[in-house]
Amino acid sequence: MSENARTTYRHGNVREDALAAAHALIAESGYEKLSIRRIADQVGIAHRSLYNHFEDRDALLDAVATEGYEGLAKALKSAETTDSFVSAYTQFALKNPYLYALMTSRPHATMKKKPDLQKAAHLVITEAIRLFSDQSAPTEEKRRSVFKIHMMLHGGLSLYQSGILDMPSDKAFVKELIAMVEEASKPLET
Question: Residue 186 contacts by C-beta under 8 Å, 6 or more apart in sequence?
Answer without folding.
Answer: none
